[in-house]
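stuck on this:

***
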Amino acid sequence: MTTSLELARAAYREVSLYTVEAAPCAVDLSDNTNLWGSPPAARRVLSDFADTGFTRYPSAYASELKDALASYAGVEAACIATGCGSDDILDSAIRAFAEPGDQIAFCAPTFAMVPIFARLNGVGIVTIPMTAAWDIDPDGLIDSGARVFYVCSPNNPTGTSASRGAIERVVARAPGVVILDEAYSEFSGASSLDLVASSDRVLIVRTMSKAFGLAGLRVGYAIGARALVAEVEKSRGPYKVSTVAERAAVESLRHDRGWVAERVSEARRSRDQLAESLRSLGLGALSSQANFVLVPVPRALAIARRMRERGVAVRAFQGLPLVGDALRITAGPAPVMEQMLVALEEALRCA
């Protein structure tokens, strides 16, 4: 009898389902979302949405959302593609620009879903170490022979930003499409969006899950040359952004940019204070430009489990390149940070 494993694609056999801790936590600092809540306009949409809106399919390619995002980013709507979170955009972009058997190159450590999406699309990976200064290695990327190049800045999980010079070098010399993941750009205040105007091979990928506090609605988008984003849209297919998600995102972009900017400022202050508090405990947190910090800690997985027992969830990593074991902690309001520090100190004493 043929087994289900034999029926599956060979590339999928070593891929595991994405898993997180099942038990909910009173304080969840594990996924880098906006801990100050969602924009008021989005909350109004969710409370007022008429039942009749659920009986029809959403806009095939979220045209109204494209218009609002174009205004936010300062580009034409034709230069934007939308998707079900930035994960959907990344998956679609890899599929659009790399044939099975091609390769995608990136500097490690970086966003853990990228090699998974590569494998699911039959694409190989080339891993280049980050530099000692936590920058990307542009020459290593360029010399990889890859078809697609991925740069996350600020980078997840380190929180560090790639230097402008290194990004420009990759864009100028890489032979394929360069995907610049800017999921956390609002927190850094920096962007490579201007490179889209000078290169038809640059795709900026962003999300409304972080600064905009809409993670549960799954709204991601890409910015690039018209021909480039058109290929992403072909790859991702229609109806990927729900009617509710599009309406909430549009209203947030139209009415709550000021609210988002205030929350971003709070997140930056909290992030910097968090890093200082961790250093006072003798922990060397990396310098972050995102809304989280990464702190190398031996036996990070055990420490994270002890913190969860105390009602606080953080993300543990084991054996990260150049880092080793580490905890990634989302920045949030002061009372939440105080609870986290108490749980961390108690967990460290038990280590």
About this structure: Residues 257-280 form the longest helix (24 residues).
